[in-house]
Amino acid sequence: MRNVQLIPLNEENSLVIASDNSGGIGIKGDDHVQVPYETVSYYSFRVAAMECIAAGGELVSVVLQNFCGNEAWEELVKGVKQGLSELGLSDVSITGSTESNFPLIQSALGTVVVGKQTVNQKLEIPNFGQVNLAVIGLPLVGNEVVEQEKQLVPLSVFLEVSKLNDVICWPVGSKGVFHELQQLFPNLELTEEMVESEVNIFKSSGPATCFIAAYQDQHTERLFNLAGNYMHSLKIKW
User: Fold this and answer.
1) Could you give the CA distance from residue 40 to residue 17 in angstroms, rounded to a whole number?
2) Are 167 and 136 contacting, i.e. CB atoms less than 8 angstroms apart?
3) How far apart are CA 163 and CA 39, in angstroms?
4) Helix (H) or strand (E) holding 112
């Protein structure tokens, strides 16, 4: 299961709640990574949105928990709107709250994405012993995200791949590709020696700069057409 909370609404639909936190990234003097707040919120939204979509959710609302100060709010909203635009969404509500009583010496942001999922949507990997794997995008973290922006997979590509039937998309977080493979195949006693890849499978992927795609042979050409140069080899020696 992805890092989401599923809440049944009725026999047909459930809420999907996904979240992300960002700390020490912004424009304050003590921030570790210096970037505009629009950038901070865009990447925080990106993580939560990808988690929600990977779990079969269609986005309906975004909630921002702002600890950067009142003056940051408009930029934070702008970053979320950029992400929504890349997903082709214009009717998703944005709300939230700002800590305005006490200023912090570092920037901090919490982002919650709420989506709606159709119950019993198929999200498991069929015949995992014969499944193909790929890493779409590169694992990047910190200043690399800004400096190597062209290497991280766009939200639009992630969305299109997620729409393919029998293709499972699995965002890679701060613990890296190997950790996500362990979550993807919980019944497999995975070791480092079993994994072959063009990318560093232990490197942090920061704000989900890449994702794992699990797919059948018939989707290989379509997946490559969508992912192009973002697609990197990944193989488990069963």
Assistant:
1) 20
2) no
3) 26
4) strand 108-118
Q: What is the DSSP letter of 57?
A: E
User: What secondary structure does DSSP assign to 128-197, as a single string?
Assistant: GGG-EEEEES----TTHHHHTGGGSPPHHHHHHHHTSTT-EEEE--TTHHHHHHHHHSTTS---GGGEEE
Q: Report the sign of the C-alpha dihedral through residues 25, 30, 34, 38, in that order.
A: positive
- Rounded distance between C-alpha atoms, residue 115 and residue 14, angstroms: 8
What are the tens digits of pLDDT across the range 125-169? 655 567 899 999 999 998 899 899 999 999 999 999 999 888 899
How is residue 32 written in tokens? 């570790």
Question: Does the pTM exceed 0.70?
Answer: yes
Task: Give the count of beta carbons closer than 10 Å to the beta carbon of residue 178.
Answer: 18
Banded pLDDT at 186 (limits 50, 70, 90): confident
Q: Residue 173 in contact with residue 218, Cβ under 8 Å?
A: no
SS3 of residue 111 by DSSP: strand
Between CA 143 and CA 154 the distance in angstroms is 17
d(CA 152, CA 148): 7
> At 92, phi and psi to the nearest 5?
-95, 125
Q: What CA–CA distance (Å, rounded) separates 30 from 87?
A: 33
